[in-house]
Structures are given as C-alpha cells and as structure tokens.
C-alpha cells in the first residue's frame, strides 16, 4: 500500500509551522510522500496573494525535501476550494483506496472548524485525518466521527501566515519564520507591503 499525506493550506506565505507539521506526520506515519496543495483564489480579489505566488513559495519551501511535492489541483480548479474536491483529485492521481491510503493533515484550528466544511462526512470516508498540535488552539477530536482522526503532537511553532504578513507590512523581519528562499521571494515580488494583512484564513 502506498501512503500519501496531503497538506492543504492557503500558504500565504508557507512557514516553518507548516513544514514541521508535514515532516513530523511523514515520519510518524511512514508516508511515501506529502503533497502540499495550495488553495485556489478566493472570489474576493486581493484578500490573499495571487495563487501563482503562493504556489511558487510552496515549491521553493519544499524543493529540498525528496518526499515533499506540490500539487496545482486546487489552484487550477475553477471556483472556491473544497477539501472534498481536493481528496477526489488526489484519488485520481494516486490511485484507488485498494492501493493508496490518504492522510489529510490539519492543524488544531482547522480541525476545530472541520465539520463546517462541505461534505465533511464524505471527506472522512475518503481519507484518514491527522490533527496536529498548534500553539493557541486546543487539539480535540470529541466532535468528530470515531476512528476518523489521529491526533499528533508536533514541536510547537508559534508561527502563522497572518503574523508573517503583518511583520512584512510593519518592516519587521520574517527570517527564520519562513525558509530563506521564501523571504527572498516575498522581497522580490513586494508581497504584503500594504495594510490589512492581519486576518487569518
Ligand atoms: P493564516 O494566519 O493566514 O490563517 P496559517 O498560518 O493558519 O495562515 P494556513 O495556510 O491557514 O496557515 O494553514 C494551513 C494548515 O496548516 C492548517 O491546517 C493549519 O491549521 C496548519 N498550520 C498552520 N500553521 C501551523 C502551525 N504553526 N503549527 C501547526 N499547524 C499549522
Ligand atoms: Mg489559517
């Protein structure tokens, strides 16, 4: 059986909290690969950086890890991103459940809101979910179907993309919060220089 991890996110920008979570779950579940899937562009223009910038930052951040890959599935699909569609696309790429186990990785904040996602119960049938600890959020599966989720403690990284965006807007450094190549990409493209960067997604 092939074992594939899926790390969904806006990745605006990708940071070391995302990377540590993916690396820990890869090792703990002996995953063959972890696929990072940046979300599509939301309808409201300007709320997040262009999909192509978020995709490229994710590629830059993951390029050195032979088990990390990036999928364009969500950014190339029209309309809003729903994880149930991401899972269907990953099934199509990686094969049926008879040959491939999918593990969808979420931080504690996302796991707490997951029952509000489209077709949530179908999602739980399509993949095993892995909830990871995140500073500032309680990690619990009390609200979720039995045996659908495994909770994993990962090294505490008190980093969020929204805090990184605010730091850039305020002229504060993001070195060591995001990979070096991502700092350089943010500067090259002039991302996050305006105001209104502080809302988490
Ligand atoms: P924002 O502040 O804009 O919401 P974010 O840091 O939460 O950004 P997302 O792209 O929204 O990043 O998150 C993608 C996934 O990564 C989610 O499942 C989220 O819970 C998880 N995640 C993000 N940061 C961390 C972290 N520091 N530790 C563990 N999990 C994290
Ligand atoms: Mg978030």
Automatic annotation (TrEMBL):
It is an enzyme of class 2 (transferase). Residues 6-167 form the Cytidyltransferase-like domain. Keywords: ATP-binding, NAD, Nucleotide-binding, Nucleotidyltransferase, Pyridine nucleotide biosynthesis, Transferase. GO terms for molecular function: ATP binding; nicotinate-nucleotide adenylyltransferase activity. It catalyses: nicotinate beta-D-ribonucleotide + ATP + H(+) = deamido-NAD(+) + diphosphate. Catalyzes the reversible adenylation of nicotinate mononucleotide (NaMN) to nicotinic acid adenine dinucleotide (NaAD). Belongs to the NadD family. This is Probable nicotinate-nucleotide adenylyltransferase. It comes from Paractinoplanes ferrugineus.
């Amino acid at each position: 059986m092939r074992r594939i991890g899926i790390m969904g996110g806006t990745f605006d920008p990708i940071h070391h909290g995302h990377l540590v979570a993916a690396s820990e779950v890869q090792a703990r579940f002996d995953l063959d690969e972890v696929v990072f899937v940046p979300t599509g562009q939301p309808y409201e223009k300007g709320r997040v950086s262009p999909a192509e910038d978020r995709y490229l930052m994710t590629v830059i951040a993951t390029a050195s890890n032979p088990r990390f890959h990036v999928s364009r599935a969500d950014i190339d699909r029209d309309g809003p991103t729903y994880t149930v569609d991401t899972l269907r696309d990953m099934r199509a790429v990686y094969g049926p459940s008879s040959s491939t186990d999918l593990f969808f990785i979420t931080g504690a904040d996302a796991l707490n809101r997951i029952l509000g996602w489209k077709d949530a119960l179908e999602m739980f049938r399509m993949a095993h979910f892995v909830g990871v600890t995140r500073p500032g959020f309680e990690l619990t599966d009390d609200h979720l179907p039995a045996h659908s989720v495994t909770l994993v403690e990962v090294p505490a990284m008190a980093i969020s993309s929204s805090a990184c965006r605010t730091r850039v807007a305020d002229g504060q450094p993001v070195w060591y919060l995001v990979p070096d190549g991502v700092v350089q990409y943010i500067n090259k493209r002039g991302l996050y220089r305006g105001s209104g960067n502080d809302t988490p997604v």
